[in-house]
């Protein structure tokens, strides 16, 4: 379903455009970071990290509560314990339903079922700290906000064991070696090592991989809490929880869709209408396991998941051959923006997986640009080595102070240069090619 919403407020779009029109020299120095009130007074007032290990639950599922997943129901009964921790407890044999041990996290509980649970020890992920430069936008004792570069994988996985954001955060926070495995088979995990846009952290523990912990960490084994993720090729803002309480609070905000995320993209073509809401479920593409697909119609399979996105054209570029599009996510499905963009017929520039191929982009843009500019166009398109998608801003309730905080970060050089070039195509005619060529030389 594609619907056209009421006109968006002008402040939203103008804010995005102001950020994008910064001069290249001030790109990184003009990062916005603000909240309803200053957080500085709270940064030294943080709660001690607590281990929830050993907490017990023995309750009956209330009448009228309907059917629920076991991990979801138990999570709703504990405050400050992450769902991943509950799943680990279930898989470790520490949960029973009606007196019988259950090790399946998706087991369905019904009204009247008696559920007992003991929270397991907090176990770490398997990853080595690596001295990888990070652009930290904001940090306090509870959260990190990072500007993830394109081409960096968020989580270690088969085929990407090193060089990930988690490896870098472990070094930055001086945390011990940790261990984890995805709860998919290793072959499936390898196929999906790049499928990670905004899905919740759902890794379980390898119980054989305990590590020695120093006295500072004796109460709880700390790990970087990746609450949401970005695709390998996507740049931009990502929030990381530094303790389990913060992880649980942020995960709940994602679950309730109260975390506001704004993305920008460069598309092949211009969507029509120029703004709207697309509500089309997403599932794995049966013909390509590393790709998702938007599936029109009713959801008849547990593998098809509801997905909704709002989009708005900020600028029409290159005479209608491209557009700068703002996206706001209502759900967080793997490759949601890329799959919805393809469904609209406007794949992202540089997205070879979802139809934004070099040949397709050139076929759209060449007829709209003077012949003398085709060389610059071809070089720009050939240099695109990732989908032109950037997580521009992020707003959430701070898990410790309760304040609304918002962070914004301009796109990196590859995105900005492509945008500048496409903007110039709007103003080119056969009579001013020399002016255009001189301008382009300044941004390459």
UniProtKB/TrEMBL annotation:
Localization of this protein: Plastid, Chloroplast
Superkingdom of origin: Eukaryota
Protein name: RNA pseudouridine synthase 2, chloroplastic
Keywords, in A-Z order: Chloroplast, Isomerase, Plastid, RNA-binding, Transit peptide
Principal location class: plastid
Gene Ontology CC: chloroplast
Listed PANTHER family: MITOCHONDRIAL RNA PSEUDOURIDINE SYNTHASE, RNA PSEUDOURIDYLATE SYNTHASE DOMAIN-CONTAINING PROTEIN 1
Pfam families: PseudoU_synth_2, S4
Family classification: Belongs to the pseudouridine synthase RluA family.
Catalysis performed (reactions): a uridine in RNA = a pseudouridine in RNA
Limits of the RNA-binding S4 domain: 68-133
The organism of origin for this protein: Dioscorea zingiberensis
Annotated region described as Disordered, given as residue ranges: 1-21
GO biological process: enzyme-directed rRNA pseudouridine synthesis
GO molecular function: pseudouridine synthase activity; RNA binding
């Amino acid at each position: 379903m594609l619907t056209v919403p009421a006109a968006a407020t002008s402040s939203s779009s103008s804010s995005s455009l102001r950020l994008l029109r910064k001069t290249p020299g001030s790109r990184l120095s003009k990062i916005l970071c603000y909240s309803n009130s200053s957080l500085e007074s709270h940064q030294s007032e943080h709660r001690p990290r607590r281990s929830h290990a050993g907490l017990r639950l023995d309750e009956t599922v209330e009448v009228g509560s309907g059917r629920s997943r076991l991990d979801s129901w138990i999570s709703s009964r504990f405050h400050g314990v992450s769902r991943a921790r509950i799943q680990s407890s279930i898989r470790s044999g520490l949960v029973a339903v009606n007196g019988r041990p259950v090790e399946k996290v998706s087991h369905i509980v019904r009204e009247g079922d008696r559920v007992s649970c003991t929270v397991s020890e907090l176990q770490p992920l398997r990853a080595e700290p690596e001295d990888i430069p990070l652009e930290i936008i904001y940090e306090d004792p509870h959260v990190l906000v990072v500007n993830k570069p394109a081409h960096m994988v968020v989580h270690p996985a088969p085929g990407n064991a090193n060089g990930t954001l988690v490896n870098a955060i472990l070094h930055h926070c001086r945390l011990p070696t940790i261990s984890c495995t995805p709860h998919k088979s290793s072959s499936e995990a390898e196929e999906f090592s790049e499928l990670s846009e905004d899905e919740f952290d759902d890794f379980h523990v390898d119980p054989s991989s305990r590590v020695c912990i120093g006295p500072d960490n004796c109460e709880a084994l700390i790990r970087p809490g990746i609450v949401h993720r970005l695709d390998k090729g996507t740049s931009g803002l990502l929030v990381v929880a530094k303790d389990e309480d913060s992880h649980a609070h942020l995960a709940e905000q994602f679950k309730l869709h109260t975390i506001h995320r704004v993305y920008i993209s460069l598309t092949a073509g211009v969507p029509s209408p120029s703004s709207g809401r697309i509500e089309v479920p997403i599932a794995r593409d049966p013909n390509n396991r590393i790709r998702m697909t938007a599936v029109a119609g009713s959801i008849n399979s547990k593998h098809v998941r509801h997905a909704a996105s709002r989009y708005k054209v900020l600028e029409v570029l290159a005479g209608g051959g491209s557009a700068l599009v703002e996206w706001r996510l209502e759900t967080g499905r793997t490759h949601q923006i890329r799959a919805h963009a393809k469904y609209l017929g406007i794949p992202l520039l540089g997205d070879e997986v979802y139809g934004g191929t070099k040949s397709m982009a050139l076929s759209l843009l060449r007829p709209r640009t003077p012949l003398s500019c085709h060389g610059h166009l071809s070089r720009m398109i050939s240099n695109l080595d990732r989908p032109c998608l950037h997580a521009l801003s992020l707003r959430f309730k701070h898990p410790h102070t309760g304040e609304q905080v918002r962070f914004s970060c301009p796109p990196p050089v590859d995105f900005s240069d492509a945008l500048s070039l496409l903007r110039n195509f709007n103003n080119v005619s056969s009579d001013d090619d020399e002016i255009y060529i001189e301008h382009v030389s300044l941004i390459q």
